[in-house]
Predict the 3D structure of the following.
Amino acid sequence: MMEALAMGGYGGYVWSSFGLTLIVVIICVVQVKRRHQQVFSDIKTRLRAMETDQ
Amino acid sequence: MWKFLHKLASPPHFYDLSAKIIPWFVVPGTILIIYGTIAGLFYAPPDYQQGDAFRIIYVHVPAAYLSMLAYTLMAVSAGIGLIWRIKLSHAVAAAAAPLGAWFTFLALITGSIWGRPMWGTWWEWGDPRLTSELIMLFLYFGYMALRAAIDDTTKADKASAVLALVGAVNIPIIHFSVEWWSSLHQGATIVRADGPAMPTEMLFPLLAMILGFSLVFGALLLGRVRSEVLFRERRSRWVKNVVLASGEQG
């Protein structure tokens, strides 16, 4: 088991590459969701402001 | 056909359809990535020259491939938007840029981590493959900065489209750099005249990773285009209806 994780001495390089990839994918997903929520709430705020104006 | 394309490019229709399509990208994409990761890390045999360090290929190649695909997509959509004035294509171009930048960053970093044990250096200034990929990162940054600097969306679309198209000359340079000049970077492995230079136990996980990451990229892109479309059409009736119909869930 430990031998498989050590990757013949290259474990640090291999695992950090895969780890970084996972982090970047997670950041991309979070950014997409955040952006969508932000646009939604901005539009909602604008619609409410228009209602109170009338 | 034209009628179908026209309907697809209409923002409200795209908004509805994309929500239904996204899971069809995410689910198979995730399954392929899980398979590719496990098979690539534990079942593929070590490379006879590079040992287990070669396994970085399973994240490096998809990242590098998508970094270039995203740029191509961005430049082509921007060009279509410029010529035919299709609103949706400018939204696609704007959405592709940050994703492309992330994948370029990932390709550079994983390449650097791979280069350290194989070439004995994290980075080699002047190497054509490395330098042209770095230039692409700066092109993405320039594109995003230019968009952010112009408030008027229509003007931002036009100016950034020109930048994207001019920067597109870098794409063939990245692709052919390892053939045109001497580079530390190895040549092509999969797409070769004499077939892939890899046994299938190495190749299948790599193909799974490339396809899996492409599908996830597709889902991320669609997600970004949705926000972009909603923002651009914020004054329209259909967006108002979408937002009101969503209730409090946001």
